[in-house]
Amino acid sequence: MRQVPGYEYIHLIRLPEYIVDNSLLNEKVHYLNEISSPKEYVNKNNISLLHAHHGQFGILLLPFKERTNLPLVTSIRGRDATLANQPANYLENMKLLFDQGERFFPVCDYLADKISLWGCPAEKIRILYGGVDLNQFKYRSPKQDDSQNILSIGRFVEKKGHHILMQAFQKIKDKFPNATLTIIGRGELEGYLKTLSNQLNLGESFRLLNYLHKDKIHDHMASADLFCAASLEASNGDVEGIPNTIKEAMATGVPVISTFHAGIPELVTHNEDGILVKENNVNELAEAIEFMLKNRQLWKEYTIRARNKIEQKFDQNKQLLQQAKYYDELLYGN
Asked: What global pTM score does this model have?
């Protein structure tokens, strides 16, 4: 959890099985199911505010909020603003959350509009973009050699559009025999993507890499020539907010190709700091990749603008300060 200036966190986890990395366990991580008396727990730990980092977690914390009378903030990140694979009565429970919760932090205007349509009062909504650690993702000028390495990072799920990217790459790879495509992630569609790679005869020009340590991911980002995020609305209605990987690529100086999907146009301005195409459109994506590979002279200008935008609107330190201001506003009326 990133440190919000002036605030300390205690992390409530639903159950032990939700911990996927035991190295994250410390005295600040507690299990919600082990708290028998919320009031005593709140008093003992001097808690002044609850922050649920997903819509479902907000719903889960409503009884805790009722028993402690603490203000509740809920972040809205993507799928939680849709009915995609949600439990029964999810929309009704979200409307109850909108009524009883004090603040909602959607990660982009697109998701703010989605929850507004569901009935969330406008006065409770505060946009809070996710930020990038600019010390970790340092800008470097686009590579000027002859490499043509295309990178995509994201879970192996439909809304990431990896299957569309693979088909687009297949359309252009004969024109660019040195081009490679690397997709890094993990998830339920791994088998399908491997099968698709064989069907498209992508051969050694394509790599599908399972989950890597963040240091290795940084190495792949540093060696990439283009970053591509082919995000789309999944068949079940699942959507993105704004993928952090696009922000990281823009911060690093890797030219970006993505789609007019969800909050992405709030980050990438077409033909200024990246290229956007219609989502779920193989031909447009292939044309965009070909255009970028043929017009390397545009990369530096695009990436300088992209880095400037990240520094202005998506700097992690600035966003954490904004989050602290939103907390202060709620607690102290500032």
From this structure: 0.94
Helices 244-252 and 214-223 cross at an angle (nearest 10°) of: 50
State both tokens at 25.
Answer: 């366990």
Q: Which residues pair with 179 in a beta bridge?
A: 148
Averages of pLDDT over each 10 residues, the chain, 334 residues: 88 71 72 92 96 96 97 97 94 98 98 98 98 95 92 97 98 97 96 98 96 82 96 97 97 98 98 98 98 97 98 98 97 88
161 and 307 share one domain: yes
> Which pair of tokens denotes residue 258?
């993505």
Q: How far apart are CA 310 and CA 112, in angstroms?
A: 21
Residue (of 172, 232, 233) closest to 206 by Cα position: 172
| pLDDT on residue 144 | 83
Write the burial class of residue 164 (CB in 10 Å: 0-12 exposed, 13-18 middle, 19+ buried): buried
Same domain, 178 and 106: no
Query: DSSP class of residue 270?
Result: B
DSSP letters for 13-34: ES-GGG-S-GGG-STTEEEGGG
Q: Which domain, by its residues, includes 160?
A: 148-313
Q: How many domains does the chain have?
A: 2
Looking up tokens 């330190």 gives 317
The three-class DSSP label of residue 259 is strand
